[in-house]
Design a protein that fits this description.
The chain is of the alpha/beta class. It folds into two domains: 2-174, no CATH class; 193-265 and 313-586, Alkaline Phosphatase, subunit A. The protein has helices at residues 2-28, 37-67, 82-106, 113-141, 148-174, 218-226, 231-239, 253-262, 266-269, 297-303, 321-327, 355-364, 381-407, 424-436, 446-452, 455-475, 496-504, 510-513, 548-555, 575-580; strands spanning 193-195, 208-213, 241-246, 275-279, 306-310, 332-335, 417-422, 482-487, 492-493, 517-518, 525-530, 539-544, 560-561, 583-586. A seven-stranded mixed beta sheet has the order 6-7-2-8-11-3-12, with helices on both faces. A three-stranded mixed beta sheet has the order 1-14-13. Helix 3 (82-106) runs antiparallel to helix 4 and helix 13 (381-407) packs across helix 14. The longest helix has 31 residues, at 37-67. The N and C termini lie far apart (63 Å). Residues 180-205, 340-345, 370-374 and 590-594 have low confidence and may be disordered.
């Protein structure tokens, strides 16, 4: 009976926690604010309460019983006790303050400045009110049970506990949606201006080759260059400039590439994930892009309460860089950049069973792909399938890009810009990183190291050849094309805790079971730049993926639009080039449609 009474009192703390969780959803998803505030908040609270009220109503009494297990005096409790409700609510507020802090730190790249400020204000309010409520509850606990002062102190604690949801509600309702807001737009009345010198004639027409590599990492490139295994990368580093680019966190590959391709952060493009989420029993909420973490949302997804769907296209509220170039009248060919939602994905011209794929696969595996007695174990089928597909996809991009460069592009004129994406390295890194860095995993056998230890290195060599061949093809149409190699993120080992959970609770997905590389934590991307005006041997360690678009526009003699959030990394360029080619900044064009 006492436990049931505890549940009855914990119910109100569960409802209190559900209010805070609902408000967290609104603070993380600014697009939810555009709907009827009262109806949206009520619907969200109803959906969240169906899960978290029962959970907290059971969890809090269980924790309380555990803490009082060795208590000398039994607890006298009624069905509705202010003392118990206050303590349960104080515990809930303390736990959710940690959750708010964790989500603010985790989703900083996804939140607009206004949303981050709102989260910080709410968090400070939660922390201060928790300390106040805790102090009042402890003081009241020291008073006699029948003391009027103790009752007044608990009422004061209740008032302190009610302040954070009020503050969060006001902030979540009043904040405007970030996407397409005036904060990201430019004023048409603002005149163009020059920076870095007096106005002069813009740079002459040049040819620019932009190569995108998924999951390329300076931590992988530099050791391989030092061992003289990547001649084209070595030339890029010696004759050109390089930069480490800060990526986004949490890092979803297509979201990071959208930020790189627009020069805008996810909160401005409106692209925060490649998936959308819906809470059961809350259809009015529509699609939710950011789910809070540390609240068991993943488990709720597996249970069917949180429904996940893949977005059919990653539509950005801002133009990709090739759209900016086309609007400026430049000729540009785009191959393999699937983040361009306005164009159909490039057709695969090379099948997985193509003889060229088999030959390259054999080379990457060190000549053991078809050797008798050296065939991989059945459990390695997923890894080899991923490797085979990576080679086929990259060869497909290579064939089309080289053909376009040699033929003078689709339109018949020499391409001013060629942008080609080679995603295969990311596929390989996801499945074979454990064999390149066995010391970080600890369970790689000598046989596995012997068979797969060189796969990543040899795939980098394959990519090195692709870049050299593409540059040579572009060189037939223009002398000394400027080359830009970019990656929106690197790759790092899947965290040990996640690997342990996969082994402990296998989900029956063989492809997921073989994944050892991840970019969820946002490892640094890469920028390699070589060409006229670029400082040779320059290294920059504090770049950002949003800085790629300004660099490309500047190299092509085009103005930088004022709303771009990326900076021009001037240290990448020679001083005399900067002095003779001033930076032109202009207002934004209409960028809210693709």
């Amino acid at each position: 009976m006492s436990y049931l009474k505890l549940i009855a009192n914990a119910f109100w703390a569960g409802l209190y926690g559900s209010v805070l969780i609902t408000l967290l959803l609104f603070l993380l998803n600014d697009d939810l604010r555009g709907r009827s505030p009262a109806a949206a908040l009520a619907g969200g609270l109803a959906a969240v309460s169906l899960v978290y009220v029962p959970v907290l109503s059971i969890l809090l009494p269980t924790l309380f019983v555990f803490v009082r297990f060795f208590a000398a005096r039994r607890l006298g409790l009624s069905w509705l006790t202010l003392k118990a409700i206050v303590w349960f609510a104080v515990t809930t507020l303390g736990a959710l303050s940690v959750v708010y802090y964790d989500n603010l730190r985790w989703a900083a790249s996804l939140l607009s400045p206004a949303s981050r400020d709102a989260m910080r204000i709410t968090l400070w309010c939660m922390g201060g009110c928790w300390l106040m409520a805790l102090a009042l509850a402890v003081t009241a606990q020291a008073r006699p049970t029948v003391s009027g002062a103790g009752h007044a102190l608990r009422l004061g604690a209740c008032a302190a506990l009610l302040l954070p949801p009020v503050v969060a509600t006001v902030l979540s309702v009043r904040l405007p949606s970030a996407t397409g807001s005036a904060e990201t737009g430019g004023s048409a009345a603002t005149p163009a201006r020059h920076e870095g010198g007096a106005p002069s004639a813009r740079a002459p027409a040049r040819t620019l080759l932009i190569v995108g590599l998924q999951a390329a990492s300076m931590d992988d490139i530099l050791p391989l260059v030092a061992s003289r295994g990547l001649p084209e990368f070595e030339r890029l580093l010696k004759e050109g400039a390089s930069a480490r680019l800060e990526s986004i966190t949490p890092c979803v590959s297509r979201v990071a590439w959208t930020a790189l391709s627009t020069g805008m952060p996810p909160w401005a493009t409106g692209v925060k994930d490649t998936r959308t989420y819906r809470l059961a029993f809350w259809p009015a909420a529509g699609a939710i892009q950011v789910l809070p973490r540390s609240l068991g949302m993943v488990a709720l997804g597996r249970a069917g309460y949180v429904r996940t769907s893949l977005r059919p296209a990653v539509l950005s509220a801002h133009r990709m860089f090739w759209q900016i170039l086309r609007d400026a009248g430049l000729s540009i060919d785009v191959v393999g950049w699937s983040v361009d939602a306005s164009e159909a994905a490039d057709p695969r011209t090379v099948a997985d069973d193509d003889p060229r794929v088999a030959a390259r696969l054999d080379q990457i595996l060190g000549g053991t792909a078809g050797a008798a007695g050296a065939r991989p174990a059945p459990e390695d089928a997923a890894r080899l399938a991923a490797l085979r597909r990576a080679v086929a996809v990259d060869l497909s991009s290579r064939d089309r890009a080289v053909a376009l460069a040699r033929s003078g592009s689709i339109t018949g004129a020499a391409p001013r810009v060629m942008a080609v994406m080679y995603p295969g390295l990311g596929m390989v890194a996801r499945h074979f990183l454990r064999y390149q860095r066995p010391e970080e995993f600890g369970d790689v056998t000598p046989e596995e190291s012997s068979r797969y230890g060189k796969v990543m290195e040899r795939y980098y060599q394959f990519v090195d050849e692709l870049i050299a061949e593409q540059e040579a093809a572009m060189g037939t149409m223009a002398s000394q094309p400027t080359v830009m190699v970019v990656s929106a993120h690197g790759v790092s080992p899947v965290p040990a805790g996640e690997r342990f959970v996969r082994k402990l609770l296998p989900r029956g997905e063989s492809d997921l079971a073989t994944v050892s590389g991840s970019w969820r934590s946002g490892p640094d991307g890469v920028l390699l730049l070589k060409g006229r005006g670029v400082g040779p041997g320059v290294k920059v360690d504090d770049g950002d993926i949003k800085d790629v678009v300004p660099a490309a526009l500047y190299l092509l003699g085009l103005p930088l639009e004022r709303p771009l959030r990326g900076d021009l990394l001037r240290r990448l360029f020679a001083r005399d080039f900067l002095e003779s080619h001033p930076v032109l900044i202009v207002p934004s064009r209409d960028a809210n449609s693709l």
